[in-house]
Amino acid sequence: xxxxxxxxxxxxxxxxxxxxxxxxxxxxxxxxxxxxxxxxxxxxxxxxxxxxxxxxxxxxxxxxxxxxxxxxxxxxxxxxxxxxxxxxxxxxxxxxxxxxxxxxxxxxxxxxxxxxxxxxxxxxxxxxxxxxxxxxxxxxxxxxxxxxxxxxxxxxxxxxxxxxxxxxxxxxxxxxxxxxxxxxxxxxxxxxxxxxxxxxxxxxxxxxxxxxxxxxxxxxxxxxxxxxxxxxxxxxxxxxxxxxxxxxxxxxxxxxxxxxxxxxxxxxxxxxxxxxxxxxxxxxxxxxxxxxxxxxxxxxxxxxxxxxxxxxxxxxxxxxxxxxxxxxxxxxxxxxxxxxxx
Length: 342
Fold this sequence. Notes:
The protein folds into 3 domains: 14-71, no CATH class; 87-232, no CATH class; 239-340, Homeodomain-like (Arc Repressor Mutant, subunit A, Orthogonal Bundle), CATH 1.10.10.60. The chain is 52% helix and 11% strand. It is built from 17 helices and 7 strands. The chain has a 5-stranded mixed sheet with strand order 3-4-7-5-6. β5 (169-174), α8 (185-188) and β6 form a beta-alpha-beta unit. α5 (87-95) runs antiparallel to α6 and α14 packs across α17. It is globular, with a radius of gyration of 21 Å. The mean pLDDT is 84.
């Protein structure tokens, strides 16, 4: 049994099980069994069945690596034929040395079409905005929310890496209907969404197109060592939200309020709220996400009583913690502890 080792270890970041299902979608559509990959990543069947279940980023990454390595398919089974290893490297090498991001995108789109044929990337302009649009060129190719989500996520991150920035998105369009559970989308797609659009697309300020790529061959070789997982993993916190989470981690279990954290970061509480809103989050959302991750970590790694854990997380009553935890994960802390241990 895990020991009650206190709070010395930092809680891992977690990701919604919705995105685990996304990773498996292509294989499942082909009728493949995914059990061996889930076991390799330490993800239980109970976690997969929980609508609000969560896994650690390490488990999510391990699952993606196992699938890509065994299948030799960077597209994770969502295309009619595998996207062999090296396809992303070929596209990125075509973009190196481009005078602007616009030229780099057009080079990437050209190689993308040669490699994958049935889908294409297209750079479009709409007033002050530029859009990277995913076009399905084969009418026989069935709709796939995961395919569209995967392509937008991967190519947004690749372009951001090319220019050495976050390449802030203005909007994400999705050609499929709004899913029933979109809770996890904010970490994957941190901008306003439009579902049921004519085509899936990433939109950003067109002024970014004038920037030159800042990466060279040496940087690309380093990036490609684990580049696919870099673009698949949910984004890390923004500059200010990351500082807020770090401050809360340093001070827990005291759990300071917004005003105290703002003072520690040498800004006013109103300024902190504005910065967090610009990053698509809030103080309460960051605090709850950290408390959720701490709770999951402690339940899976220790025998801490629920009453003590509630106090560690800043709840005055165990019942309040249990209600909050069920809202975060869909099940009680006791049930989640059993699920997490398979």
